[in-house]
Specification:
Elements (H helix, E strand, L loop, with lengths): L3 H14 L8 H12 L1 H13 L7 H17 L3 E6 L7 E7 L8 E6 L14 E3 L2 E3 L3 H21 L7 E6 L9 H4 L1 H9 L2 E4 L4 E2 L4 E2 L7 E10 L2 E2 L12 H15 L9 E7 L2 E3 L6 E3 L5 E2 L2 E8 L4 H16 L5 E11 L6 H16 L18 H4 L4 E3 L6 E2 L7 E3 L2 H16 L8
Parallel strand pairs: 3-6, 3-7, 7-18
Antiparallel strand pairs: 1-2, 2-6, 4-5, 5-20, 8-9, 10-16, 10-17, 11-15, 12-16, 13-14, 19-20
Length: 438
């Protein structure tokens, strides 16, 4: 793949020497030059953001990062509101609004302020080696925040921001969503209902041959199984009076999941299991305790895992089948499965594909590599799932990053201006397209 900076230089040279050669406008050519010149500004902002810890539960740190972004957005002419997160047990969110001429499509830009690295993590510091930056949340999602600012700065420089109607929603709890969801995601849903297009700035997925556009992301929800059984001396196992015990019942259920539920774009991980007399989860649901002796039939078994699906219909169908499997109890046992809703799917739609098609027109006009749609099995859930039921949505528009959620997370610095250019041109064009008649 051609280095994108060389591609932009070639594009600019051709556009200057033969204006009929490129479909890009003078403003778009200006943006191509600007994002390259603005790279030091973005990298300095990235360093400041990464060096401020903003683990989801570090409310003060999230608020400080929010203030950094507020300063940037207000400097670009946005009206910025801080939504206090106390009602949903989190720090809060940024809602920023830019009022344009009211005639073009309304664009929602989505990112998040928090990271998975809490204040007690040993991974706290930003560093750079050549084109690679390393640091907590450098790609997920502080690199995305920098891309958002780079987009808006390029549009302002080219004169296309003035007429654009844009909302920027930066959640403070994407990694550990606050509860109730109706409050923690109510402002994001309202912004999606206002918008005509939603663009999400988590990291770009790329390989040796392609950068990919995300037109679908799978859901993420949790489930828990609680099993109870008759107990007694182990010599009575399988008898009519006692039955099979809780651990055999749990084993039947989990193996039935493994054998019966498989289908495309669906995964269902079992993350934690315990059995004994008794067995239970602690109040945080992050540890389990099981006690017992080999001569006691276990009275309890508990299991917890996640479920990821591509569509609401798939999710409902699979949940129903899981419930049926649990209900077919072995003798002497009883139990239930409980589902805990998390992130809904960003299902693939013709509208999402059409939005990627528009981005690929931008790529062709700017002499950048086109982006095929990423197979949804390769992405996890994100806040874009809350916008997708209401508006055409495109995700993965942040910079290229690797090792998200792990110590040593990295980002390719030259993809910050690349992704800023792609979106700056796309949003500028969308802002000139008439809004659909409702």
């Amino acid at each position: 793949m051609m280095n994108w900076l060389r591609a932009v230089a070639l594009f600019t040279l051709l556009a200057i020497s033969n204006s009929a050669y490129a479909a890009a406008s003078p403003a778009e050519t200006r943006m191509a030059r600007y994002v390259t010149a603005d790279r030091p500004y973005g990298e300095a902002l990235l360093e400041r953001l990464v060096n401020q810890n903003s683990g989801t539960l570090n409310s003060e740190g999230v608020r400080i990062v929010g203030q950094m972004m507020r300063t940037e957005l207000e400097g670009l002419g946005f009206t910025v509101e801080w939504v206090d997160g106390t009602p949903f047990n989190r720090a809060g969110h940024i809602i920023a609004t830019h009022v344009g001429n009211g005639r073009g499509k309304r664009v929602l830009m989505i990112g998040h302020l928090d990271t998975v690295f809490e204040a007690d993590s040993p991974f706290q510091t930003y560093s750079v080696a050549g084109n690679i930056a390393t640091g907590p949340g450098v790609g997920d999602d502080k690199g995305g925040l920098v891309v958002i600012i780079g987009i808006l700065r390029a549009m302002r420089d080219a004169g296309t921001l003035a007429n654009a109607d844009i909302k920027v929603v930066l959640t403070g709890d994407e990694e550990r969503m606050g509860s109730p969801v109706s409050l923690s995601r109510g402002d994001l849903v309202a912004a999606a209902q206002w918008a005509d297009v939603a663009l999400e700035y988590e990291n770009l997925v790329r390989d040796a041959t392609h950068d990919y556009g995300t037109i679908a992301r799978r859901s993420s929800s949790n489930w828990q199984i609680n099993i109870h059984s008759e107990s007694g001396h182990s010599s009575g196992i399988f008898s009519d009076g006692v039955g099979y015990g809780a651990i055999y019942e749990m084993s039947r259920i989990l193996d039935s999941f493994r054998r019966e539920l498989r289908e495309p774009n669906l995964t269902y991980n079992v993350s934690l299991v315990a059995g004994g007399t008794p067995a239970q989860f602690d109040t945080t649901l992050e540890r389990a305790d099981g006690r017992g002796k080999t001569n006691i039939i276990p009275a309890d078994a508990v299991a917890r895992g996640d479920l990821r699906s591509l569509t609401v219909e798939q999710d409902a169908r699979v949940r129903a089948r899981m419930t049926e499997i649990v209900a077919a109890h072995l003798p002497g046992t009883s139990g239930e499965i409980v589902f805990d809703d998390g992130y809904p799917p960003m299902s693939p739609t013709p509208g999402n594909q059409a939005l990627l098609d528009q981005l690929n027109i931008v790529n062709r006009d700017m002499r950048l590599a086109e982006m095929p749609a990423l197979p949804p099995i390769r992405r996890g859930a994100a806040d874009s799932g809350f916008a997708a039921p209401y508006v055409d949505t495109l995700g993965g528009l942040g910079p290229s990053a690797n090792g998200s959620h792990a110590v040593g997370e990295t980002l390719e610095l030259d993809t910050i201006p690349l992704m800023a250019l792609r979106s700056a041109v796309l949003i500028s064009r969308l802002s000139r397209q008439p809004r659909p008649v409702s």
